Amino acid sequence: MTYYEQTLTQMKRLLDDCKEHRYASFLADCLTDYADSKDVARFQKGFSGSGIFENFSFRDSDFDDPALAFWTVQLFGGLTAMAIQLAKFEVANRSMDIPFMRKHFGHPAEVIGGMKCRQCGKRFINAMDIAKYITPPVISAIIVDGLENGDLNSRVSELLQFRSEVLLSEQETAKRRAANTKVAVSDSWAPLSLCPDCGGNDLIKCRFLKSLRTEAFVALNR
Fold this sequence. Notes:
The chain has helices at about 5-15, 20-35, 40-45, 65-90, 100-105, 125-150, 150-160, 165-180, and strands spanning about 110-115, 125, 185, 205-210, 215-220. By secondary structure, the protein is of the alpha+beta class. The chain has a 5-stranded mixed β-sheet with strand order 3-2-1-4-5. α4 packs across α6 and α6 (about 125-150) runs antiparallel to α7.
């Protein structure tokens, strides 16, 4: 399969998994169009301002795990961005190669969000903060490496089962940076309402910049 077909196939898979049958059927038709005549017009219309996907979003009821919900949504968004670009190249009769993908997709984040307790001064990040921070490199690696090696399906499975090597590696790196900055890490996926250290409820948002010199973060607001 071409890069375009592989990408759409995984988009359809995610929709099938969540029983979004109307949208999955649309992508099946797009794949048929391409197989029959290399036509991407239906797909491009579907993701235009007035297309079928204009107001699409996964339903909360599709998931019973916030981590699975997060990574499914992020993965679908990454696949969609890739497919839209691949369709544009098809129309222009150009081919998109792997070096181009690596250059233009998934620039690493420089800032991670967190919370600070104004009662004890403790700063901390949670699982959602880490997930948002590592999304660009994780999603880019899953898609681009999967297309390059022809194993996108298995890489998607590994991500959704939380056994992806790139996911685990990026999570551990973020946690090490936090530890080296004396920032506590919570496993919670929900916004924290109480300080894990002192139990205080006077929490404010804060941000940390990735240090380029050491494996740590730098607080952006005191």
